[in-house]
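During the practical work, I worked with a single protein chain and the tokens that describe its fold, as given directly below.
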Amino acid sequence: MSIIVELLKASEGVERKIPVIDLEGSKIGEASLPKVFYAPLRIDLVSRAFIHLQTHSLQPKGAFKGSGHKYSVDSWGAGYGMARISRINASGTGKAQAGGMVPSAVGGRPTHPPTPEKKIHKELNKKEKKIALITAVAFTGATRAVIE
């Protein structure tokens, strides 16, 4: 049995009539609300669904995966009176003989950057999503609960 049917069975025997009003404001008749408006009001599920939808707009933050690796580098080895850091193969620029691809050098890669692959959106189960939708519709009929 589906979760929707279970929720709607909980509201069996309850029927509420609402007035039907014309454009001038006079009462024409009455109409009964659908069963979905009698579902139990679960604020916790509605707030979880809201957070689930809100986190999908977040942007992953972190360093570019190829940062510090933009240049071709070679280690000169020992015997040059300089540290044995990999040096950028460039000539005629300010980057000539600068260290590259190592965190200790200027222009090198970041040491321990935040990874942009981090999962930052919240998940929501399928049944929870269905119940949250029904509950949100039920909240539209209960204005006092929304105000609280």
Remarks:
- The helical segments are 3-9, 43-54, 126-141, 143-147.
- The CA atoms of residues 37 and 142 lie 8 Å apart.
- Residues 3-58+120-147 form one domain.
